[in-house]
Amino acid sequence: MTTLAAVAANFTRDLEQNYQTIETYVAQARERDVDFLVFPEAAIGGYLSSLGNHGDTVKTTSRSLPPAIRLDGPEIQRVQSIAGDLVIAIGFCELAEDGETRYNAAAVLDGSRIYGSYRKVHQPLGENMSYSSGTDYGVFDTPIGRVGLQICYDKAFPEAARVMALDGAEIIASLSAWPAARTATAENLQEDRWTYRFNLFDTARALDNQVFWIAANQAGTFGSLRYVGNAKIVDPGGNILDSTLLDSGMAVADVDIAETFTAMRGGMFHLRDRRPDAYGVLTELDATGDAGWRGLAHA
């Protein structure tokens, strides 16, 4: 059996507080014999305090921006010292080799090795004013299986998860700082329309690709953002095995990866039964996916 876990918690600009929170959940994970623990997007240094064309989303200001961290820097090394033999995925603001470019990034690692890292490809609501975007998706061999990483808004794009599933991903870790709706926010955040979408994407992507899906998310508030939590483990049939709902905490599930894949993929063949010959139009559409589609449809 393999034990998977996802964290919902609040992470800010206070790095020492972040490390303490990471230590707390790593300790809890060890008590429950967790093999793979997923922290949220921006768990080292916090996320942006607002989204849109204002405030700390403007590239030309450093006000309140997350600390920029090198993959080989002391902050990641500190997390590795906490992780020990536990495999974790964690989000941070990565500083590129040129010393200027920032990426919204994640890495999967343990105390002795970084197995892989990822730079967020899809950017919502002005996030591109603070971060450059990544260009591809990797899948990494780890002690708990082949793992793919994606961040937040990526989950709204089926292609992102599919390319990792086709590369052999058994587990996709989806790290988020997903807030409630900015307008007409529901009084009960569990009923908020953005919470609904967050949860729907998680179950759909797991079922689409018949993979284990681990969704971690920020909780609480930061700046103008109010996060919806709902960290969860989803199996390849789209079934939620455990969830934190709105609360901070840790969702945990014991799974048999090989046996589950045999059962789930032995009855429905979502990857085998694809028809790539019919999908070529996907890469021919214009940037809006609108006018180009109509033109091709009537050609």
UniProtKB/TrEMBL annotation:
E.C. code: 3.5.1.77
Top-level EC class: hydrolase
Ranges for domain CN hydrolase: 2-257
GO molecular function: N-carbamoyl-D-amino acid hydrolase activity
Top-level division of the source organism's lineage: Bacteria
This protein's record includes keyword Hydrolase: yes
PROSITE patterns for this protein: CN_HYDROLASE
Keyword Hydrolase tagged: yes
Keywords recorded for this protein, A-Z: Hydrolase
Pfam families the UniProt entry points to: CN_hydrolase
Protein name (Swiss-Prot/TrEMBL): N-carbamoyl-D-amino acid hydrolase
